[in-house]
Amino acid sequence: MKRLLSALPLALALIGCATAPSTPTTMDYGRFEGNVFTNDFFSLSIAVPEGWVVQDAATMARLVKQGTDMLYSDNEEMKRAIEVADVENMQFFGAYQYPLGSAVEFNPSVILMAENLKSAPGVVDGGDYLFHAKRMMEQSSVEFRIVEDTRPVTINGAELHALDIAITYLGNEIRQRYYTRVLNGFAVAVVITWTNDEALSELDASVSTLRFAR
Hints:
The protein is of the alpha+beta class. It has a single domain (about 1-15, about 30-210), classed as Mog1/PsbP, alpha/beta/alpha sandwich (Protein Transport Mog1p, Chain A), CATH 3.40.1000. It has three helices and 15 strands. It has a seven-stranded antiparallel β-sheet, sandwiched between helices. Helix 1 crosses helix 2 (about 125-140). The chain is globular. The relative contact order is 0.20.
């Protein structure tokens, strides 16, 4: 957890009673159909803003296994299954308003990632995860403030937790919002990053399409 959470803010700034279903033992990378991303392991889907530049698992996500990064080429089918026990952190995609490297002051983004909680069994919901995320941020060198503290949110019937922060970088304030949910032994996080209301409007529209089948 420390590896992911301590690096996350700066990295993003720069660029019942019923029987529970069994947890799958393999994870898929997910797939895009148009601008809609679907992942079967988490039974989720989300649409990224139309016209934004997407970098999916083929080009940006890394599977960390015992300290070894396994990268996959662009032409590989991202439906392959991997052993859940082998996954520490997974970044499924990043969608950016502009191509990376564009001559713009800031590049708004929406990123979907997940972190294995096998070493943190006490984390039972998104609020727990964000509690630890804040502690990691406080221990980092990143200058940030909490704009709106952790609170429960419901998106299309799914219960998540959200946290808003502002990061100061090179004299500029960058806003971030984390949406988290614990599912299948992982913390799933949708992170949006922006600096202006226009970008936030598109990002909010994207988040509003987030759906979990269970």
